[in-house]
């Protein structure tokens, strides 16, 4: 039976370590990320080299803290404390699960509840405690999923293996996998910093989609976060307004879009180029049209 194999734990028994911002900065450095300490907060690069945001995306900074963390930055953004929100010059369109502490099946639309029941019949959801399954079957799933969604470039095999290794350097990553008749149908990862749970990446094989694996995995991660002491918020990325089917999925699952006040700055040339060539990315970076 699959759950008797090593490196698998039933999702109902899943657990992982929740970190402070400082602890998360230390773990990120261990994984090889560039982390900059600036005015007592921790920053990392987002996307293209030279654009920075706090490693804890929803960390609330004062305007004095929310300044470029290095002279080499061509852009930056940071969420502001509620008390200093009047200093904001933009918004962060965060997709957040409404009322995590009471989240259950009743919060789903009726159609999504039916899909969840199907997923729960067909997909066994487990937490991975080691890399074996991903090393054996994960790369093909990732490449197939990204070929379908095209939201970023597929990794090389070496890049993929580096990502898999980082999951198990320490115990703060949560990696959930969906198994269908013993085969990996998809997996998703996330972590918690200062009470905020972040769902980071999710990859699903095309052949697994009819089982509604994405609904089952999303719901399982939310229930896991709900059980963790001190977790108050679950974030599932930023508002992808240009992908209506994804927006509908998150709406069906009970997510809402929150506009968080931010302070941001950007090189004028880069700003004009991004706004012209990638208006949806510009919206997610700044909250502006």
From TrEMBL:
It comes from the Bacteria. InterPro entries: Acyl_CoA_acyltransferase. This is Uncharacterized protein. It comes from Corallococcus llansteffanensis. The lineage of its organism: Bacteria, Pseudomonadati, Myxococcota, Myxococcia, Myxococcales.
